[in-house]
């Protein structure tokens, strides 16, 4: 799998917030978009998700141009704050949701959905909690369920926007480890938006350091430290551990 982001530009009301952004993501790769508030991370992720449209540039997955595909047709998994769990659905219904709404031709049977939900509950280490409702879970458990919901459809790409930011430090640490673990087990490539450099360093195979709508450097964490391309990256990498 190769996901290619090519020459993406996006303006809001005459202000360019993405200025010719290009990067590529390989099979099973975990990539972090790291940068200060307003640097364009969320806009880029929304464009990748199909929730916003670029003014110019292309997105392609294994050579297929997906720039104009709808969000649903992209078949990506999303863990965004704005996609909270459905409160009126049980944990199991939440996890199975993406499978249940598939078009009839590709939709798995009820039994298959139930089996997949059970498998994911095991993976997120919440077996037996399928009948609970989101309100009966801790914040960390809810995020695990959100992750399972995103992964249930076997997404072609997993997109996460600050998925840990509302959690306390200890829960965040343990969730980080399990997200990385799950992502590797499933083998799906992932893009994580974060402004937390420790998080980017702990999780990512490669980090795209963003500043003012551009990618300042896109490299392995150790390379960012050893060979920063600019003073801004050097300062950022020196502080991260
Ligand atoms: N719908 C919009 N209309 C107008 N301006 C917008 C819109 N969405 C984003 N912007 C502007 O685009 C710039 C980039 O925003 P974006 O949310 O992508 O940054 P970010 O790096 O994700 O920041 P944060 O970490 O605070 O979420 C900001 O200056 C923001 O004010």
Automatic annotation (TrEMBL):
Keywords: ATP-binding, Nucleotide-binding, Transport. Signal peptide: none annotated. GO terms for molecular function: ATP binding; ATP hydrolysis activity. It comes from the Bacteria. Residues 3-237 form the ABC transporter domain. One of its GO terms (biological process) is putrescine transport. Pfam families: ABC_tran. One of its GO terms (cellular component) is protein-containing complex. InterPro entries: AAA+_ATPase (IPR003593), ABC_SmlMolc_Importer (IPR050093), ABC_transporter-like_ATP-bd (IPR003439), ABC_transporter-like_CS (IPR017871), P-loop_NTPase (IPR027417). PANTHER family: SPERMIDINE/PUTRESCINE IMPORT ATP-BINDING PROTEIN POTA, SPERMIDINE_PUTRESCINE IMPORT ATP-BINDING PROTEIN POTA. This is ABC transporter ATP-binding protein.
């Amino acid at each position: 799998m190769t996901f290619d982001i090519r020459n993406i530009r996006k303006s809001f009301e005459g202000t360019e917030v993405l200025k010719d952004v290009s990067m590529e993501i390989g099979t099973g790769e975990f990539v972090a978009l790291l940068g200060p508030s307003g640097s364009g991370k969320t806009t880029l992720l929304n464009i990748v998700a199909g929730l916003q449209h670029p003014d110019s540039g292309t997105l392609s997955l294994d050579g297929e141009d997906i720039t104009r595909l709808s969000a649903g047709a992209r078949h990506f998994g999303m863990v965004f704050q704005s996609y909270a769990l459905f409160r009126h659905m049980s944990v199991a219904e939440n996890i199975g949701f993406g499978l249940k709404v598939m078009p009839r031709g590709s939709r798995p049977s009820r039994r298959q959905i139930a089996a997949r939900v059970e498998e994911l509950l095991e993976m997120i280490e919440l077996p037996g909690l399928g009948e609970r409702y989101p309100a009966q879970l801790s914040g960390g458990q809810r995020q695990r369920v959100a992750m399972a919901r995103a992964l249930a459809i076997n997404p072609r790409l997993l997109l996460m926007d600050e998925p840990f930011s509302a959690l306390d430090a200890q829960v965040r640490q343990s969730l980080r480890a399990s997200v990385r673990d799950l992502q590797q087990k499933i083998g799906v490539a992932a893009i994580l938006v974060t402004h937390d450099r420790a998080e980017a360093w702990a999780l990512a195979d490669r980090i795209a350091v963003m500043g003012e709508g551009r990618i300042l450097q896109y490299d392995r964490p150790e390379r960012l430290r050893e060979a920063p391309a600019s003073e801004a990256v050097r300062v950022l990498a020196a502080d991260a551990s």
